[in-house]
């Protein structure tokens, strides 16, 4: 599993002009799921998301986790994170299809919610517009193959 995690002051996701997810301070997470991913990867990435310490403490150091600042999550599925860009037209054979990806996406969201966080979501498989006000900017790439 791969996640692009951006620390934000606010983020929204819309489908057909309607806002379906909106947060203030927190993390915008674009979540990609590969054909090889399992529930173990969903659990691992959810745990890492909840524990990242990238919010500033009283000394201006990135030392606080999202729970310490009252942050929220906006988690959006993003199959293109597994694009093969070895040619000019990306291929997506490593990206999991909906029958594999959707349950794992939903499991990740559930695991984050179980930790007590507010989690907003996009609509799985929909054409979405995502907007964010990046804070810092701080953007991180998580890959369960490297955690």
Rg, Cα atoms, Å: 15 Å
> Would you tell me the structural class of the helices and strands?
alpha/beta
Shape: globular
Strand content: 35-45%
CATH-level-4 superfamily name: D-tyrosyl-tRNA(Tyr) deacylase
Total domain units: 1
- In whole angstroms, the N-to-C terminal distance is 10 Å
Largest sheet: 6 strands, mixed
Low-confidence stretches: none
Estimate the helix proportion, in percent: 10-25%
The tally of strands reads: 8
Query: What's the tally of helices?
Result: 2
Mean pLDDT across all amino acids:
97
CATH third-level topology: D-tyrosyl-trna(Tyr) Deacylase, Chain: A
CATH class: Alpha Beta
- Series of H and E elements: EEEHEEEHEE
Describe what you observe in this structure.
This protein is α/β, with parallel strands linked by helices. The protein has a single domain (2-143), classed as D-tyrosyl-tRNA(Tyr) deacylase (D-tyrosyl-trna(Tyr) Deacylase, Chain: A, 3-Layer(bba) Sandwich), CATH 3.50.80. Helix content is 20%, strand content 40%. The chain is built from 2 helices and 8 strands; from the N terminus they run βββαβββαββ. It has helices at 39-51, 98-114, and strands at residues 2-15, 18-23, 26-32, 53-56, 62-65, 72-77, 119-121, 129-143. The strands form 2 sheets. Strands 1, 2, 3, 6, 7 and 8 form a 6-stranded mixed sheet that branches. The longest helix has 17 residues, at 98-114. The radius of gyration is 15 Å and the shape is globular.
């Amino acid at each position: 599993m791969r996640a692009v995690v951006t620390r934000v002051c606010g983020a929204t996701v819309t489908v057909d002009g309607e806002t379906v997810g909106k947060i203030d301070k927190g993390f915008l997470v674009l979540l990609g799921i590969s054909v090889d991913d399992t529930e173990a990867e969903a659990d691992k990435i959810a745990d890492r998301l909840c524990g990242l310490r990238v919010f500033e403490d009283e000394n201006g150091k990135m030392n606080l986790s999202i729970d310490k600042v009252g942050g929220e999550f906006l988690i959006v599925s993003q199959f293109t994170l597994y694009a093969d860009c070895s040619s000019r037209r990306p291929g997506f054979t490593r990206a999991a299809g909906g029958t594999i990806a959707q349950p794992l996406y939903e499991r990740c969201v559930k695991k984050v919610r179980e930790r007590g966080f507010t989690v907003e979501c996009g609509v799985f498989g929909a054409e979405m517009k995502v907007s964010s006000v990046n804070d810092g900017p701080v953007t991180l790439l998580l890959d369960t193959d490297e955690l």
